[in-house]
Design a protein that fits this description.
The protein is an all-alpha fold. It has one domain. It has 4 helices and no strands. The longest helix is centred in the last third of the chain and has 38 residues. It is flat, with a radius of gyration of 18 Å.
Length: 139
């Protein structure tokens, strides 16, 4: 029943791992780069951002060795949970201070929309997981 990824997919998973590792590096250094709109409280969000990106790296690593549709949907559910946690901490700490209050409000609204959309996507992935799992068991 095990299915390995094709060489092209393996390369894609590897590229995703490298990009997410680069994102961890970028997020870890944003405060040191003195970005004017980023507050020191951003450090309080870093653990959640790092965790979310690390989970994504780990999942892509697993995909290199086990590449089945139902498993992708299950792993996406897990990734979504960690993404939601990351966005939640960014929203609750809100480590930004833009020159115009309109920008602060716009970013807060965008974060709220993301906090609503991630669970909807998670529910869709969970439904797809059960559908694919049922199809595989009936074959």
């Amino acid at each position: 029943m095990e299915k390995q990824a094709t060489p092209g997919k393996k390369f894609g998973y590897f590229v995703a791992m490298v990009i997410n590792a680069a994102l961890i590096y970028v997020f870890e250094h944003l405060l040191a780069w003195n970005i004017p709109y980023l507050l020191p409280t951003f450090a309080g969000c870093l653990w959640a951002i790092r965790l979310s990106l690390s989970v994504t790296i780990f999942v892509n690593f697993i995909y290199i060795f086990y590449d089945v549709d139902w498993f992708h949907h299950l792993m996406q559910v897990i990734e979504n949970v960690f993404s939601w946690i990351s966005v939640y901490f960014i929203y609750s700490i809100f480590p930004f201070e833009f020159p115009a209050e309109m920008w602060n409000q716009g970013v807060k609204i965008a974060l709220i929309i993301i906090l609503v959309l991630i669970p909807i996507g998670t529910l869709v992935e969970l439904i797809q997981f059960f559908r694919k799992l049922n199809r595989q068991q009936s074959n």
